[in-house]
Specification:
single chain
Amino acid sequence: MANVVPQLDFMSAVKLALSRIKDMEGRSRRSEFWWTTLAIVIVNIVLSFIPVVGPILCICVWLAACPLMIRRMHDTGRGPVLVYIYMALYVIMQILALVTYFKAKNATTWSDIDSAAGIGAISLLVTIPAAIIGIILIVFW
């Protein structure tokens, strides 16, 4: 008979992930990973509606989830390199979104608006490889 690992409920999974927030070694069971990922997505959706502080808090939430993602990659027999690349692209996207917001908010000329639009376009270009890597990571997890 195969070893069956008991599945966690939502609260137990999030509590376990939070208790192991600094642990990049070891493994995380599927239920811990997916329930915590659901919680992270919900928190990020809520935070995305806060104009200035939201993107900064989103970065903090995703960086706190990085060890969980790395532990899950260990479960699949892969290294953490894709997680690091994805996180770097995510941070760059959020920083560019903040810069675009401030440029557009403080725009006084058409040139300022054009530069804000250019930064926004660069942010979209960063989004494409991030989305591709994100899909690859979901398949691996």
